[in-house]
Amino acid sequence: MPGHKTSHTQLERFRLIDSLLSSGETISFDDILEKLRSILRDPALSESTLRRDFRYMKNELAAPLEYDAKKYGWHYTKTYKLPSSGFTDDEILALHLVKKLIGQHSSEDFIFKSIQTLLEKISPSLNLDEEKKAEPVREGELDFEEADSKALTIYDRIFVPTRPKPVLEKEACEKVLFAIKNNFMLDFYYNSKWEPEERHRRIMPFQLVLDEGSLYLYGARRTEPDNPRLFNLSKMHGVEVITSRSFDLPPNFRFHEETEQGRFGAFQYDDYFDFKIEFYGDARKIVREYVWSDNQILEEDSEHDKSILTFTTSQWLPVQKWLLSFGGEAKPLEPDWFVAEWKEIVRKMAKNAE
């Protein structure tokens, strides 16, 4: 009924429906509804709510629900176990948020699609804050789409915008994962930022690194196990697994050693640098809203309307891109070589603007 508040959760209803039908009986829709009203002590539980529950169990949880026209009731067509029976409502909400975050980049690669499929299987719909009446629907002819559109969940109140998605070579991700699982060597061609032409690589794949929707492979050549590097899967072509050649993981196989305190994503360099950057205008507000490095110090200079951020990190390249994103509202002060590179980039930008 309009404005009706439930004291139970949708997960509880799923469990009760499952327990009723797991007996193997064929039960009418009205009987299921009455049993739920009685057990949950909620006489106002609506038909539209039960229709919505049936729809979700059937379409999202793969419940083998089927209507028997001869017996005028619902039953399971095969043995079935309700997934996620151990989750609380808050955990279910968290799963939905994870699903949204995973889908933020709309990636078509194996990793993200597999995670989304898994989350679809284990994440039941969320508890409704309000129940709304639906038009009567005859037994066995549940209008699931219409019923679902008549009520909103907390899930509808949370939005995650889409982001750019990586362009990956078909099956590249599956091959990389297969090689990682079995410690097989990987063969591929790579177009590096630091080299003018695409080059052949054969490396030991250590880890798959996920960063803002992009996928990276962390690995090293067999002849240089102590010099691992990152490879962007979007730049890898002709990926092949060398199943005849395996390797043992070296002690340094993990990306991002504990000494790295910068929070600028998938980038790691051998040397660490002390950065000092000035911020002005709106950039000052943005800098205050995040922790950019675990060792950062933020100083406010109100007299000159500026903020000064100092921190130590090896991640100089993403720091450079981050700094440039502030336009004229940020200026590096240290280290000297970083300041010189920034000035050169600004000069090129100014020349391109002519």
Structure overview:
It is a single chain. This protein is an alpha+beta fold and 354 residues long. Helix content is 32%, strand content 21%. The protein has ten helices and eleven strands. The protein has helices at 10-21, 29-40, 47-59, 89-102, 110-122, 144-149, 172-182, 282-288, 316-324, 336-352, and strands at 65-68, 73-76, 184-190, 199-211, 214-220, 229-232, 236-246, 273-279, 297-301, 306-313, 330-334. The radius of gyration is 28 Å and the shape is extended. This is Putative DNA-binding transcriptional regulator YafY. InterPro entries: CBASS_pafABC_assoc_protein, WCX_dom, WYL_dom. Residues 173-241 form the WYL domain. One of its GO terms (molecular function) is DNA binding.
Write the layout of secondary structure elements.
Layout: H1 10-21, H2 29-40, H3 47-59, E1 65-68, E2 73-76, H4 89-102, H5 110-122, H6 144-149, H7 172-182, E3 184-190, E4 199-211, E5 214-220, E6 229-232, E7 236-246, E8 273-279, H8 282-288, E9 297-301, E10 306-313, H9 316-324, E11 330-334, H10 336-352
Antiparallel strand pairs: 1-2, 3-4, 3-7, 4-5, 5-6, 8-10, 8-11, 9-10
Helix pairs in contact: 4-5
Please report which band the strand proportion falls in: under 5%, 5-15%, 15-25%, 25-35%, 35-45% or over 45%.
15-25%
- Count the beta strands: 11
Given the helix and strand composition, which structural class is it? Answer: alpha+beta
The average pLDDT score comes to 82
Please give the radius of gyration in angstroms: 28 Å
Indicate the overall shape.
Answer: extended
Could you name the ranges where pLDDT drops below 50 across 5 or more consecutive residues? Answer: 1-7, 125-152
The largest sheet, given as strand count, sense and whether it forms a barrel, is:
5 strands, antiparallel
What is the helix content?
Answer: 25-40%
What's the tally of helices?
10
From the N-terminal CA to the C-terminal CA, the straight-line distance is: 66 Å
Number of domains: 3
H-E string: HHHEEHHHHEEEEEEHEEHEH
Strand order in the largest sheet = 6-5-4-3-7
GO molecular function, one term: DNA binding
Domain WCX: 275-350
Domain WYL: 173-241
InterPro entries: CBASS_pafABC_assoc_protein (IPR051534), WCX_dom (IPR057727), WYL_dom (IPR026881)
